[in-house]
Amino acid sequence: IATALRPERVHSLIALTTPIDFEDSGLLSAWARARALDLGLVVRALGNMPWSLLQASFQMLRPTLGLNKLKALTERLWDDAFVDGVLALETWGNDNVSFPGECYRQFIEELYRRNALRRGSLQVAGVAVDLGRITCPLLNVAAQYDNIVPRSSSRALNELAGSRDATELIVPGGHIGAVVSRRAMEQVWPAVQAWIRERLLSAAPLHPAPRA
């Protein structure tokens, strides 16, 4: 959104498992569009969307995931590196804060329910967000097994952006594991670094230095 509003300020853009088209078949989208979710009631009653409720909704997407993690952990308790990695990821994943209520209401109504970003009707401070104004090099990273941002949702960025240099990188894993796992360290981030290096070496400076 920021790049579309001020494209002259962005040299290149990398999107990591980024939702664009919210009319996908994912369970999270179905829940967000359900009229049983009364956004006004939530904001009036709670002020902010509690982090615990948000966390529970993500956990309900894969109800058995917690048991699978525990099983894997007990089977590899002897592996200190594996245990340290699991604990670090779980600590990070559970370190949450509540979401500002009005921002949450706007996010759900404008994006999930009206699909305003995909349809070009989203506005920020009265200015329309046109993804076609994104013309800088674009790398769109999508997770193969993402149940939070399905590929059909993230792929829309390549379809709507005006970038001639637009790449979609499909990486193994889910929404989180695709970018923080050991496999990500070995495969994903080296590919991202190579993409950045190539664009920086071949592109002109974003803001040329003034003449002396």
Note down, in words, how this protein is organized.
The structure is a single chain. The protein is mainly α and 212 residues long. The protein is 50% helix and 9% strand. The chain has a three-stranded parallel beta sheet, with helices on one face. The protein has a two-stranded antiparallel sheet with strand order 2-3. The two termini are 35 Å apart. Mean pLDDT is 89; it is low at 207-212.
Short description:
The protein has twelve helices and five strands. With 212 residues, it is mainly alpha-helical. The protein has a three-stranded parallel beta sheet, with helices on one face. A two-stranded antiparallel ribbon has the order 2-3.
How many DSSP H or I helices?
12
Query: pLDDT average, as an integer?
Result: 89
Report helical residue fraction.
Answer: 40-55%
Low-confidence stretches: 207-212
Spatial ordering of strands, largest sheet: 1-4-5
Radius of gyration: 20 Å
* Global geometry: flat
Measured by DSSP, the beta-strand proportion falls in: 5-15%
Distance between the termini: 35 Å
Query: Describe the biggest sheet?
Result: 3 strands, parallel
Q: Give the helices and strands as they follow along the chain.
A: HEHHHHHHHEEEHHEHH
Find the count of extended strands (DSSP E, 2+ residues). Answer: 5
Q: Structural class, judged by helices and strands? A: mainly alpha
Write the layout of secondary structure elements.
Blueprint: H1 2-5, E1 13-16, H2 27-33, H3 39-46, H4 51-61, H5 65-75, H6 80-93, H7 101-113, H8 116-119, E2 123-124, E3 127-128, E4 138-143, H9 151-154, H10 156-160, E5 166-171, H11 177-180, H12 182-202
Parallel strand pairs: 1-4, 4-5
Antiparallel strand pairs: 2-3
